Amino acid sequence: MQTCTCNFWCAILSSTKETLSSWATSSVEEVASTRPGIRSFQLYVYKDRNVVAQLVRRAERAGFKAIALTADTPRLGHREVDIKNRFTLPPFLTWKNFEGLDLGKMDKVVIQMGLCWT
User: How far is CA 102 from the centre of its chain?
Assistant: First the structure.
């Protein structure tokens, strides 16, 4: 798993409980295959609930035990440095948890913007 981050490997080595980002470049299956452990899956709430359901089912099948719901991101960030530098993911990295889903729809329009705790 060459695409794993340093933080991920530090968590493995120290037996820390892990939370994997839904936008990670390692899939839930790849992470689950590294060793036994308790893991949670970070998830944004998308307007397309089918996308949410597919991501949750996939994490569950991989043995993840909890969902870390992110509800404070009404839209994707406008990262001026990334825009200035024309940042894109290198071709060898992909958002592995979205493979098989229509990534053309995975933008600020899809994230549920009206969530609140009331």
Answer: 15
Q: Which amino acid is at 19?
A: T
Cα torsion 53, 63, 68, 6: sign: negative
Each residue of 23-52: pLDDT tens digit?
899 999 999 998 788 899 999 888 788 888
The rounded distance, in Å, linking the Cα atoms of 67 and 44 is 10
User: Rounded CA gap, 50 and 21, in Å?
Assistant: 18
**pTM score, two decimals?**
0.69
Q: Are 20 and 31 in contact (CB under 8 A)?
A: yes
43: helix, coil or strand?
Answer: strand
Longest dimension (CA), the chain: 42
**Which residues have C-beta within 8 Å of that of residue 72, sequence separation ≥ 6?**
none
Please tell me the distance from the alpha carbon of residue 43 to that of residue 67, in angstroms, as a whole number: 7
